[in-house]
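User: Hey, quick favor. My workstation is busy. Could you predict this chain's structure for me?
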Amino acid sequence: MISGDPTKVSIVVRAFNEAEHIERLLIGIGAQTMTPHEVILVDSGSTDDTVAIASAYGARIVHVDKAEFTFGRALNRGCASATGEICVFTSAHVYPVCSTWLEKLVEPFQDERVALSYGRQTGNDKNKFSEHQIFAQWFPAESVCPQPTHFCNNANAAIRRSLWEELPYDETLTGLEDLAWAKAARARGNWIAYVAEAVIVHVHDETWKQVQDRYRREAMAMRLIEEHAQFTRGDLARLLTRNVLSDVRAARRQDLLRKELRSIFMFRYHQLTGTYRGYNGPSEASAQLRARFYYAGSNGQNGHRSAASEDVIDYAALEAEARHAQLEDRRHWSLGLARNQRDDPGRTDEDGSRSGSVLNGVTAERAVVD
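Assistant: No problem, here it is.
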C-alpha cells in the first residue's frame, strides 16, 4: 500500500548555469492551474544568475557539489528535501506548453498502482531537425497506462516520494537513472504512465561534440542497466543509414531538405558514434570524462512553440510583465507566498537564506491565448 497525499506536489529542478532558461520555466510553473506545494532548485555549482533568479521566484535552493554531481545524486538530494508526496522533475531548460501541464502529469497517481508518470516532449527552433524526429517517435500523441516498458524521461516526469524512500536513484550511473528507477519500480509490480497531454518544450542547442557526449554517457549507463545490451559497428552502420534516410524523407515532406541535409547527417553521425563509443569503451567515467559529460556548456536561448489549445501559456505576455518588475519584487508575485512564510517563519534554505514555498502565477489571472 502506497501512502501519502497525491495532491501535495514538490517540483524538483536540476540546474547548472541555466540563467538563460530557468525564468521561463518558473513563469510557466506560476501559470499552472494546479499550485505546487514547493519548488526546489538542485544547483550543482552555477556561476551565473541561476540561483538568484530561482530564489527571486520563491524556489528553495539545495546544493550539490560540482565534483560529486551525478543525475541520480541530484534527484536524491531534491527528493530528500521535498515534503510533497509527488515529486515532479524537470530540467531547467524546459518549459510547459499549457497551464494544465502539472495537473495532467500528476493525474495518474489517483491510481495507487502508478509509481511514475512522464509527459510528452517537443522542441523549438533551437533543436536540431533530427531531434524533432526523435521527440515525435519517443513521445507520441496518445497516452498509455500502464505502459508495457520502463522507458521514461526525467526532463518531464513525476514519482511517488514514498516509493523513492524505498527505492532511491542510482547515483553511480552517468545517465538514464530514470530508466533504471522505472525498471526497478516495474519489477515490484508498479505501473508507469505516459501522459501525452502533459507537454513541455525541451530546448537543446548543442554542439556536435555535446550531442556525441550525451549519447555516449547514456550508452555507458545502458550497459549497466541492461546486462546483455550491445552496439556493434554493424549496428552503427545500419542505424546511421536507416535514420538518415528516414530524416531525409521527413525533411523532404516539409520542404526543408536543402536546409537540413547537413544537420541530419551530422546529428545522426554523432548520436550513433557516441552510442558506439559508450557501449564499447570504458564502463566507468573518469573525473575528466565526468566533467566533459556534465559541464560541457549550457543550452541556447528558448523560443516559443505554438499549440492549438486554449490553455497554451502566453510567455510573451508573462515575460513582458517580468521585465517591468524589479527582481526583488518578483517573489511577491507567487500567490500564497506571504501566507506560507507566516505559517512557517523559521524555514530556511541550506545556505541560511529565506525562501517561499509556492510558485503560482505572475498575476492572479491565468494567462492564456485563444
